[in-house]
Amino acid sequence: MSMGWTSPVFPQLRSDNSPLPREPTLQEESWIGSLLVLGGLLGPLVTVPLSNRIGRRRIIMGSNIPLLLGWLLAGVATNLPTLYAARIMWGCATGMLFATVPLYIGEIAEDKIRGSLSALFLLFINVGFLLAYAIGPFSTYWGLTATGGILSLFYVPFTWFIPETPFFLVYKGKIDEASQVLQKLRGLSKDVVQTEVDGLQALVAREFRVEPSVKDLWATRGNVKALGICVFLAMLLQLSGIDVLLFYMEELLVKIGTRMSASDGTIIMGVVQVVTSFITPLVVDRLGRKLLMWTTSLGLTIFLGLIGVYALLDSYFKYNVESWAFLPLLCLIIYMILFTLGVGPVPWILVAEMFPVRTKCLASGIASFMCWLAGFIWTRFFREVASSYGIYTAFWILAICCGLGFIFSISPLLPETKGKTFDEIQDMLNNRTKEPKPVAV
């Protein structure tokens, strides 16, 4: 909700009811939008060193401290520095959650539902965006901000009841407690979950004989290749323009020339995101990661390019595009569907599948850091590119980035991991082939 807050708030900051003493400039608005993403860079820096020390549960609970502080600062803001600080606090909280929640889900889920359950993370992110989009246009600045703050107050009481992950408990030597948590999660008896507990003990003994270090990421050719793949796809996730569209949705719908009310169009986009998020868990384990990546990145290239063409005809050549006024919103709706199905969730699923347990936390942190870095650069300068060279140029740059993702996805550089064991994935990444058995003569 803090990420979607800017879309309905920017028009209010330019109105007479703004909490600020004057209307913010274009650059100041760009800083308001992008500082959340810059704050997101702090998330992995907090979670990676603490994850194996204090546990996933405490990090998830602790993320509410900067989150609530952000809502408080936004609520009392009367100047830009206070608003900037609020955005950084929200970004820190969001970065902590993005780096920890997928790891938490992966460690409590059964193998057969891990991919689908991980995809639900995106669903509830989109519910937060929809809340901001739906409440903002019909509320004041303070009403929207107070709603977000009140909802965040429920965060600690509810997260207090979530258990620590069985893996972390075994890692800390709390075997009985891990067994009790598994009994509750699986709804099974102690004897039935004992096999899983034994497996976790063997895993910890094998993978954590020595403390993990950054050097583990380039210890094998497969790890280096996996890191390159995941970092590239995580950056592509941002370079496809998702944060730009989500943060500046109302403004973009006006700029590209759609004739629908910007607030109505934004709500429609939020509904599409949520509905599509229900579909993602059903297809991600059926269609495969590679297929989803190349089809969705190709689709994003086409529809972002079409928006650019429409904006060029409308704003530069001044053609009468009244009969095609539905096209920008339609293209953005299809963009959201495709992003939610492939380019959005697949990078994080691959992080969970490609790395050994001892390096997974480090790899997730690095991929998350690079994702936020790419997002900050793009959200900070997108509006200036649009202002200087036309909104159509900005959309064409997004289309080119997605086109590069399409080329990468159809190339042999991206392996298909669907239905493969960890050992089989490692064989592919390390270019290992199994020796054929000798034929008896």
UniProtKB/TrEMBL annotation:
SUPFAM superfamilies: MFS general substrate transporter. GO terms for cellular component: plasma membrane. It comes from the Eukaryota. Its main location: membrane. The chain crosses the membrane at residues 31-52, 59-78, 84-105, 117-135, 141-162, 226-247, 267-284, 291-313, 325-350, 362-383, 389-410. GO terms for molecular function: transmembrane transporter activity. Coiled coil: none annotated. It is a multi-pass membrane protein. Keywords: Cell membrane, Glycoprotein, Membrane, Transmembrane, Transmembrane helix. This is Major facilitator superfamily (MFS) profile domain-containing protein. It comes from Euphydryas editha (Edith's checkerspot).
